[in-house]
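Much of the work behind modern protein science is quiet bookkeeping, done one molecule at a time. The protein below has been through that process, and both of its lines are reproduced in full.


***
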Amino acid sequence: MDIRSMTPTDLEQVLTIQRRCYPPQYHEPLGAFENKIRQSPTSAWLAVEAEMALAYLVTLPVDEDHFPALHAVNWQPPVRPKWLYLHDLAVDPDHRGSGAGQGLVQRAFEHARASGLAGLALVAVQGSQPYWHKQGFQARQVDHPGLLAKLRSFGTDASFMTLDS
């Protein structure tokens, strides 16, 4: 298995994995992926084997005021990011347990550290909080109004979590 940078030509495979992993309300349109790759071209990766995508991870440099809303096609990065935000990690159901997800998160952690960021941040949904806690992430109380609004856009079970670098 190799981990490489995601390109616009990978997006059909990415959308296929997304459809296999998430319920329809979490399906982001092609334009949302294109925007994120355009705005942060060095922070999205694909785990591949024989040119077949096993998993993907889209991360974005953010601060409290610059978290993308779900389905956003016009996200802009901040001037001084604080975290590398794990916006979307998906492992094709046929490849769970392959280590692809952990490899992608490790790549993101290395990227955050090399970029001088405080660490990783994510919004845990679909009951994934225990998984992320096992990976070292800690739930954080959210008081910032902008971040709180973004968090609520993911549903009532969403939890903001971070991992310091």
Notes: The radius of gyration is 15 Å. The chain is about 30% helix and 25% strand.
